[in-house]
Each structure stands twice: as C-alpha cells, then as structure tokens.
Amino acid sequence: MSEVYVARRGRLRDRWTAAGGEAALVSRPANVRYLTGWSAPGAVLLLGADGHDTLLSPAVPATDGRTGPPCATGDLRCAVLPGDVSDPAVAAAELAASRPGTELLAVEEHDLTVARHRALAAAAPRLRLADLGRAVEQQRLVKDEEELAALRVAAEITDHALGELLESILVGRTERHLALELERRLMDHGADGPAFPTCVGTGRNSGLPGHRPGDRRVEEGDFLSVRLGARYRGYRCQVGRTFVIGPAPADWQIELYELVFAAQRAGREALLPGTEYREVDRAARQPLEAAGYGDFLEAGTGHGVGLEIGEDPRLSPAAMGKLDACVPVTVEPGVHLPGRGGVRIDDTLVVRPQADGGPELLTITTKELLAL
C-alpha cells in the first residue's frame, strides 16, 4: 500500500509546484492519514518540492493495519519528536526553513488557529506563508477501490449491528441504552469504533437531527429513529432509519414516512456524474416542500463521507459543483415535528453512471416502515 500514499503525495506535489509552490505543511488529521496511511494525535506532514517528505509526530504513529511503516520503505521520513516540542507544526516550519532554496511554505489555513499561524511565522521568519487551501480535501473527493472497499465493509458492519437491534425487545429501554448497545454491536462486528456519536430518538425526539440519546424510554406508538455508522480502517459510513413501536403505525405516521421516503428516493436517483450538488438537494427537498414541510427541513440533504463524516461535497441549496463518479455521499432528508416526533432516512451511496447501474447503495437495511 505504500505506493498508494506515494502516488497521492505526488499528485498533491505536482498540483502545488505547478502553481509555484515549494513546500507544503499538511496539519488536518484526516489529510495526514490520507497522504501517509498513518495516524497519531498532533502529527503533521511536510512535503518538499524535491520529494523529501517528513512526517513529524509527538508519538509513534499507528498504521492502518495493512502495511508496515512507510518509513521502512524509504518513501517517507518519520521524525518522532521529543517531549519538549509543544507543536509538531512549528517543528515542521523550522525544518522547512532549514532546507536550502525553500522560501515559500503552504499551510492549511482552514485548519490553523490564528495563534498557531502566528507561531509558524515566528518560528520560520524567512519563509513566506501561503494558503494551501482545501487542495487535499479536493483530492480526497474521488475514492479509489481500496477506499471504497473499506466503506463497503463499514456499511456491512453497520447494517449487521442495526439488524440485530431490530430483533431485540425495545419497549421500556432508554435511548441511551439502545445507543450504547448499537455501538457495542459495531465493535463486535469488527468496527474500529463508531463513525460518529450514535443517535437514537424515540417519541417526540424521533427524527430530531443531532439528538443526544437521553433517558426517555421507548413506548408503544412511538416513532423510533436511529442514526449510526461504523468506522473501518479509518473510513466512515452512515445509515439512518425510522420505525414504529407497536402493532401498527398511525395514519399520520404512515403519511409522514411515505413523504420522507419519496424525498429520499428522489435524492438517491439524482446521484449521477455531472449532476450539480444543489440539484440533488432540490430533488430530495421538493416533495417535502410541496407537502408543506419546507419549514421543518435542514439546511442540506447530504454530504460526502470517507475519512470524515460530513466531508465534501455538500448537498445543499447553495452548494457549487458537480458530482463525479466514485464519490461516496449520504442522502438523508428528514422531518421533525416539534412535540410529535419525525422521520429520518439516511443512506450512504457511491455515485456511479447509469451505464454502470447508477448509484451504488452501500447501506441496505430495509427502508420499509416496520412496526416493531
């Protein structure tokens, strides 16, 4: 796998040096992992125009489990910093300044605090700092087959965990208890951990975006909404489903569920290469707005997934750009009615052309309105 990371760094270097860059400092943790396969809290990556790349870490980094340390191949130098070094980014700036001919250092300004940016400038006063922008994030948009394979496993683990929960007794259990059980089941099936804090909402809390599970117990007649995801080899997926507790759903629950399901299906069907991000959002949003639920919708109806949950692209009304093939995204419309509850249906899919069968659905747990 080390050649994959070498190629990724090479593409980034070619792009930056073509724009007149000399050295680049990558500090965003997901970007460091994408370019090296290593992860350690606080680690940063210094890329040189001459191909001399150095990973500076306050601790011995952990690999992704598939390869030996890339430093052993000679592709990447690794420097484990002594304990008295407070910021690896500052050490990286000093190292860049020590290299002959380096006068310009690109940094990820969107990842740096003002204080940290000032510290870099003070540590290497002869260097001119420029903004690398979101160059690495843009490169991460389109996933290779190794990345998609990890996402498929993450989705399979998530589906298994959710499926097992649906076979258990739910009435009387708290939201917090169910969330903890789901996360345990993710680990039991091989996840590195949850992709994000698991969300379980019942009754008036159902369908509430970002709801933190509390002590409310599941009762007959409730909507029960669940949103979870597994993290596998660093890659994260997301699934959200809504169920009814009891023998049969009420008429208003059926009506609301069918509307959200229609919106989610429209969003999924729009996931084709060349489609504008905002057009996907519009496809999912239109059925709910037409039914009078426009005031209850979130700012967006989906986002990219990969080494982070909520990475680019954003599927929202103001989003600019068009979908490419092999970009994994979520489609997740939802409606929450204050005091009553609501419905969420989330899936993770990979954008594919119609010639290849259209969008590839990774999360396959049924979207039928089950009465549990």
TrEMBL record:
<protein>
    <submittedName>
        <fullName>M24 family metallopeptidase</fullName>
    </submittedName>
</protein>
<dbReference type="InterPro" id="IPR036005">
    <property type="entry name" value="Creatinase/aminopeptidase-like"/>
</dbReference>
<dbReference type="InterPro" id="IPR029149">
    <property type="entry name" value="Creatin/AminoP/Spt16_N"/>
</dbReference>
<dbReference type="InterPro" id="IPR000994">
    <property type="entry name" value="Pept_M24"/>
</dbReference>
<dbReference type="Pfam" id="PF01321">
    <property type="entry name" value="Creatinase_N"/>
</dbReference>
<feature type="domain" description="Creatinase N-terminal">
    <location>
        <begin position="8"/>
        <end position="142"/>
    </location>
</feature>
<dbReference type="InterPro" id="IPR050659">
    <property type="entry name" value="Peptidase_M24B"/>
</dbReference>
<feature type="domain" description="Peptidase M24">
    <location>
        <begin position="150"/>
        <end position="352"/>
    </location>
</feature>
<feature type="region of interest" description="Disordered">
    <location>
        <begin position="197"/>
        <end position="216"/>
    </location>
</feature>
<dbReference type="Pfam" id="PF00557">
    <property type="entry name" value="Peptidase_M24"/>
</dbReference>
<dbReference type="InterPro" id="IPR000587">
    <property type="entry name" value="Creatinase_N"/>
</dbReference>
